[in-house]
Amino acid sequence: xxxxxxxxxxxxxxxxxxxxxxxxxxxxxxxxxxxxxxxxxxxxxxxxxxxxxxxxxxxxxxxxxxxxxxxxxxxxxxxxxxxxxxxxxxxxxxxxxxxxxxxxxxxxxxxxxxxxxxxxxxxxxxxxxxxxxxxxxxxxxxxxxxxxxxxxxxxxxxxxxxxxxxxxxxxxxxxxxxxxxxxxxxxxxxxxxxxxxxxxxxxxxxxxxxxxxxxxxxxxxxxxxxxxxxxxxxxxxxxxxxxxxxxxxxxxxxxxxxxxxxxxxxxxxxxxxxxxxxxxxxxxxxxxxxxxx
Length: 293
Hints:
Blueprint: E1 3-8, H1 12-24, E2 28-34, H2 38-48, E3 51-53, H3 56-62, E4 65-68, H4 72-84, E5 88-91, H5 99-112, E6 116-118, H6 126-139, E7 143-149, H7 161-184, E8 187-194, E9 199-206, E10 211-217, E11 226-233, E12 236-241, H8 248-264, H9 272-292
Parallel strand pairs: 1-2, 1-4, 2-3, 4-5, 5-6, 7-10
Antiparallel strand pairs: 7-11, 8-9, 9-10, 11-12
Protein backbone atom coordinates (compact mmCIF):
# COMPACT_ATOMS: atom_id res chain seq x y z
CA UNK A 1 0.00 0.00 0.00
CA UNK A 2 1.10 3.56 -0.70
CA UNK A 3 2.40 5.46 2.32
CA UNK A 4 0.23 8.51 3.17
CA UNK A 5 2.55 11.53 3.25
CA UNK A 6 2.02 15.12 4.32
CA UNK A 7 4.09 17.99 2.91
CA UNK A 8 5.19 20.69 5.36
CA UNK A 9 5.94 23.84 3.39
CA UNK A 10 4.60 25.48 0.26
CA UNK A 11 7.52 27.54 -0.99
CA UNK A 12 9.63 27.13 -4.09
CA UNK A 13 11.37 23.92 -2.99
CA UNK A 14 8.08 22.35 -1.92
CA UNK A 15 6.35 23.25 -5.18
CA UNK A 16 9.21 22.58 -7.60
CA UNK A 17 10.95 19.59 -5.99
CA UNK A 18 8.92 17.68 -3.43
CA UNK A 19 5.30 17.99 -4.55
CA UNK A 20 6.03 16.77 -8.12
CA UNK A 21 8.20 13.89 -6.85
CA UNK A 22 5.60 12.85 -4.28
CA UNK A 23 2.78 13.01 -6.82
CA UNK A 24 4.73 10.96 -9.37
CA UNK A 25 5.90 8.21 -6.99
CA UNK A 26 3.48 5.24 -6.81
CA UNK A 27 4.86 4.20 -3.41
CA UNK A 28 3.43 7.25 -1.63
CA UNK A 29 0.17 9.17 -1.56
CA UNK A 30 0.45 12.92 -1.04
CA UNK A 31 -2.59 13.58 1.13
CA UNK A 32 -2.21 17.16 2.36
CA UNK A 33 -0.09 20.32 2.43
CA UNK A 34 0.51 22.54 5.44
CA UNK A 35 2.35 25.84 5.68
CA UNK A 36 2.34 29.09 7.60
CA UNK A 37 1.26 31.16 4.56
CA UNK A 38 -2.29 30.23 3.51
CA UNK A 39 -2.23 31.39 -0.12
CA UNK A 40 0.80 29.35 -1.31
CA UNK A 41 -0.64 26.34 0.54
CA UNK A 42 -3.95 26.77 -1.25
CA UNK A 43 -2.30 27.09 -4.66
CA UNK A 44 -0.07 24.06 -4.17
CA UNK A 45 -2.90 21.92 -2.82
CA UNK A 46 -5.13 22.81 -5.76
CA UNK A 47 -2.36 22.02 -8.22
CA UNK A 48 -1.92 18.53 -6.77
CA UNK A 49 -5.54 17.99 -5.71
CA UNK A 50 -4.87 17.42 -2.03
CA UNK A 51 -6.08 19.02 1.18
CA UNK A 52 -4.81 22.44 2.27
CA UNK A 53 -4.44 22.54 6.05
CA UNK A 54 -4.10 25.46 8.45
CA UNK A 55 -2.98 23.42 11.46
CA UNK A 56 0.13 21.23 11.59
CA UNK A 57 -1.62 18.84 13.97
CA UNK A 58 -4.24 18.22 11.28
CA UNK A 59 -1.45 17.20 8.91
CA UNK A 60 -0.15 14.71 11.46
CA UNK A 61 -3.59 13.15 11.80
CA UNK A 62 -3.77 12.41 8.06
CA UNK A 63 -0.33 10.95 7.33
CA UNK A 64 2.23 8.35 8.37
CA UNK A 65 5.18 10.47 7.29
CA UNK A 66 6.04 14.15 6.85
CA UNK A 67 8.26 15.59 4.13
CA UNK A 68 9.73 18.93 5.22
CA UNK A 69 10.44 21.88 2.92
CA UNK A 70 10.75 24.68 5.47
CA UNK A 71 13.65 26.72 6.95
CA UNK A 72 15.90 24.72 9.32
CA UNK A 73 14.73 26.30 12.62
CA UNK A 74 11.11 25.64 11.64
CA UNK A 75 11.98 22.09 10.62
CA UNK A 76 13.59 21.38 14.00
CA UNK A 77 10.53 22.70 15.87
CA UNK A 78 7.88 20.90 13.84
CA UNK A 79 10.02 17.82 13.28
CA UNK A 80 10.04 17.24 17.03
CA UNK A 81 6.25 17.47 17.12
CA UNK A 82 5.91 15.02 14.25
CA UNK A 83 8.35 12.56 15.83
CA UNK A 84 6.48 12.65 19.14
CA UNK A 85 3.36 11.67 17.17
CA UNK A 86 5.24 8.70 15.70
CA UNK A 87 5.51 10.11 12.19
CA UNK A 88 8.45 9.30 9.93
CA UNK A 89 10.49 12.29 8.73
CA UNK A 90 12.15 13.24 5.43
CA UNK A 91 14.32 16.19 6.40
CA UNK A 92 16.10 18.98 4.58
CA UNK A 93 19.69 19.80 5.45
CA UNK A 94 20.88 21.30 7.65
CA UNK A 95 18.45 19.50 9.91
CA UNK A 96 18.29 22.37 12.41
CA UNK A 97 18.92 26.09 12.56
CA UNK A 98 21.97 25.47 14.76
CA UNK A 99 23.75 22.54 16.35
CA UNK A 100 21.69 22.73 19.52
CA UNK A 101 18.44 22.53 17.54
CA UNK A 102 19.78 19.69 15.39
CA UNK A 103 20.92 17.74 18.44
CA UNK A 104 17.59 18.20 20.22
CA UNK A 105 15.65 17.03 17.15
CA UNK A 106 17.94 13.99 16.80
CA UNK A 107 17.52 13.14 20.48
CA UNK A 108 13.73 13.18 20.16
CA UNK A 109 13.79 11.09 16.99
CA UNK A 110 16.09 8.48 18.52
CA UNK A 111 13.92 8.29 21.63
CA UNK A 112 10.72 7.92 19.62
CA UNK A 113 12.35 5.42 17.21
CA UNK A 114 10.71 6.89 14.10
CA UNK A 115 12.15 6.26 10.62
CA UNK A 116 14.11 9.17 9.18
CA UNK A 117 15.93 10.15 6.03
CA UNK A 118 17.83 13.29 5.03
CA UNK A 119 17.28 14.73 1.57
CA UNK A 120 20.65 14.13 -0.13
CA UNK A 121 19.35 13.87 -3.67
CA UNK A 122 22.75 13.50 -5.36
CA UNK A 123 23.08 10.02 -3.88
CA UNK A 124 20.04 8.82 -5.86
CA UNK A 125 21.25 9.90 -9.31
CA UNK A 126 22.35 7.11 -11.66
CA UNK A 127 25.69 8.77 -12.47
CA UNK A 128 26.54 9.24 -8.80
CA UNK A 129 25.63 5.67 -7.88
CA UNK A 130 27.73 4.34 -10.75
CA UNK A 131 30.63 6.53 -9.58
CA UNK A 132 30.41 5.28 -5.98
CA UNK A 133 29.61 1.63 -6.63
CA UNK A 134 31.85 0.92 -9.63
CA UNK A 135 34.27 3.71 -10.55
CA UNK A 136 35.62 4.55 -7.10
CA UNK A 137 36.48 0.94 -6.11
CA UNK A 138 38.17 0.43 -9.49
CA UNK A 139 40.80 3.16 -8.87
CA UNK A 140 41.49 2.31 -5.19
CA UNK A 141 41.54 6.01 -4.24
CA UNK A 142 43.94 7.63 -1.82
CA UNK A 143 42.47 11.12 -2.08
CA UNK A 144 40.20 13.43 -4.00
CA UNK A 145 38.87 16.89 -4.72
CA UNK A 146 35.41 18.43 -4.85
CA UNK A 147 34.13 21.67 -6.32
CA UNK A 148 30.69 23.21 -5.92
CA UNK A 149 29.70 26.33 -7.85
CA UNK A 150 26.13 27.56 -7.56
CA UNK A 151 24.23 30.72 -8.41
CA UNK A 152 22.28 31.11 -5.16
CA UNK A 153 24.06 34.42 -4.51
CA UNK A 154 24.26 35.55 -8.13
CA UNK A 155 22.67 38.82 -9.18
CA UNK A 156 19.00 38.26 -9.94
CA UNK A 157 18.84 34.83 -8.27
CA UNK A 158 15.50 34.11 -6.59
CA UNK A 159 17.08 32.99 -3.32
CA UNK A 160 15.22 33.52 -0.01
CA UNK A 161 16.87 35.95 2.41
CA UNK A 162 17.19 33.29 5.10
CA UNK A 163 19.25 31.12 2.73
CA UNK A 164 21.54 34.00 1.78
CA UNK A 165 22.19 34.73 5.45
CA UNK A 166 23.51 31.22 6.10
CA UNK A 167 26.56 31.44 3.85
CA UNK A 168 27.75 29.01 1.22
CA UNK A 169 28.90 26.21 3.54
CA UNK A 170 25.73 26.03 5.61
CA UNK A 171 23.53 26.36 2.55
CA UNK A 172 25.42 24.14 0.10
CA UNK A 173 28.07 22.14 1.93
CA UNK A 174 26.27 19.01 3.14
CA UNK A 175 25.86 17.38 -0.27
CA UNK A 176 29.51 17.73 -1.28
CA UNK A 177 30.89 16.60 2.09
CA UNK A 178 28.50 13.64 1.97
CA UNK A 179 29.70 12.67 -1.51
CA UNK A 180 33.38 12.92 -0.56
CA UNK A 181 32.72 10.79 2.52
CA UNK A 182 30.89 8.18 0.47
CA UNK A 183 33.89 7.94 -1.86
CA UNK A 184 36.76 8.22 0.61
CA UNK A 185 35.45 7.30 4.06
CA UNK A 186 34.21 9.25 7.10
CA UNK A 187 35.67 12.73 7.62
CA UNK A 188 37.44 13.05 10.98
CA UNK A 189 39.33 16.34 10.52
CA UNK A 190 38.50 19.62 8.83
CA UNK A 191 40.28 22.90 8.02
CA UNK A 192 38.67 25.82 6.20
CA UNK A 193 39.76 29.18 4.81
CA UNK A 194 37.94 31.92 2.95
CA UNK A 195 34.76 33.96 3.22
CA UNK A 196 31.52 32.17 4.19
CA UNK A 197 29.63 34.57 1.93
CA UNK A 198 32.16 34.24 -0.90
CA UNK A 199 34.72 31.56 -1.80
CA UNK A 200 35.54 28.85 0.75
CA UNK A 201 38.24 26.20 0.51
CA UNK A 202 38.42 23.21 2.85
CA UNK A 203 40.75 20.30 3.52
CA UNK A 204 39.41 17.03 4.93
CA UNK A 205 41.14 14.14 6.66
CA UNK A 206 39.26 10.88 6.22
CA UNK A 207 39.19 8.08 8.76
CA UNK A 208 41.13 5.59 6.67
CA UNK A 209 44.15 7.83 6.04
CA UNK A 210 42.85 9.49 2.88
CA UNK A 211 42.64 13.24 2.25
CA UNK A 212 40.47 15.53 0.17
CA UNK A 213 40.10 19.17 -0.72
CA UNK A 214 36.90 21.04 -1.57
CA UNK A 215 35.95 24.50 -2.77
CA UNK A 216 32.60 26.27 -2.60
CA UNK A 217 31.28 29.39 -4.33
CA UNK A 218 27.67 30.54 -4.52
CA UNK A 219 28.09 33.58 -6.79
CA UNK A 220 28.49 31.77 -10.11
CA UNK A 221 26.60 33.07 -13.12
CA UNK A 222 23.22 31.43 -13.57
CA UNK A 223 23.49 28.44 -15.86
CA UNK A 224 27.06 27.63 -14.84
CA UNK A 225 26.29 25.59 -11.72
CA UNK A 226 28.45 22.51 -11.22
CA UNK A 227 29.15 19.96 -8.48
CA UNK A 228 32.25 18.00 -9.34
CA UNK A 229 33.99 15.22 -7.40
CA UNK A 230 37.17 13.42 -8.43
CA UNK A 231 39.15 10.69 -6.67
CA UNK A 232 42.57 9.34 -7.61
CA UNK A 233 44.54 6.23 -6.74
CA UNK A 234 47.19 3.88 -8.13
CA UNK A 235 44.78 2.51 -10.72
CA UNK A 236 43.62 5.83 -12.14
CA UNK A 237 41.08 8.59 -11.62
CA UNK A 238 37.28 8.57 -11.32
CA UNK A 239 35.05 11.61 -11.51
CA UNK A 240 31.40 12.62 -11.53
CA UNK A 241 29.38 15.79 -12.03
CA UNK A 242 26.57 15.41 -9.50
CA UNK A 243 24.44 18.54 -9.78
CA UNK A 244 23.49 17.99 -13.40
CA UNK A 245 22.86 14.31 -12.73
CA UNK A 246 19.93 15.05 -10.40
CA UNK A 247 16.58 15.11 -12.16
CA UNK A 248 13.03 13.89 -11.60
CA UNK A 249 14.11 10.23 -11.67
CA UNK A 250 16.60 10.71 -8.84
CA UNK A 251 14.08 12.57 -6.70
CA UNK A 252 11.42 9.93 -7.28
CA UNK A 253 13.93 7.23 -6.34
CA UNK A 254 14.70 9.13 -3.16
CA UNK A 255 10.99 9.31 -2.29
CA UNK A 256 10.55 5.62 -3.09
CA UNK A 257 13.43 4.63 -0.78
CA UNK A 258 11.97 6.84 1.94
CA UNK A 259 8.60 5.10 1.53
CA UNK A 260 10.31 1.72 1.82
CA UNK A 261 12.01 2.83 5.04
CA UNK A 262 8.66 3.98 6.45
CA UNK A 263 7.01 0.69 5.51
CA UNK A 264 9.87 -1.29 7.07
CA UNK A 265 9.82 0.85 10.22
CA UNK A 266 13.56 1.48 9.95
CA UNK A 267 15.55 4.59 9.11
CA UNK A 268 17.32 4.90 5.77
CA UNK A 269 21.12 4.72 5.83
CA UNK A 270 21.08 8.49 5.15
CA UNK A 271 19.26 9.08 8.42
CA UNK A 272 19.00 11.96 10.87
CA UNK A 273 22.20 10.95 12.68
CA UNK A 274 24.07 11.21 9.39
CA UNK A 275 22.47 14.62 8.90
CA UNK A 276 23.66 15.69 12.35
CA UNK A 277 27.17 14.46 11.51
CA UNK A 278 27.18 16.57 8.31
CA UNK A 279 25.95 19.61 10.22
CA UNK A 280 28.75 19.17 12.76
CA UNK A 281 31.29 19.07 9.91
CA UNK A 282 29.93 22.33 8.56
CA UNK A 283 29.97 23.87 12.05
CA UNK A 284 33.62 22.87 12.42
CA UNK A 285 34.48 24.45 9.08
CA UNK A 286 32.62 27.66 9.92
CA UNK A 287 34.39 27.85 13.30
CA UNK A 288 37.72 27.52 11.53
CA UNK A 289 36.75 30.35 9.18
CA UNK A 290 35.92 32.60 12.12
CA UNK A 291 39.09 31.76 14.05
CA UNK A 292 41.37 32.34 11.06
CA UNK A 293 39.28 34.95 9.25
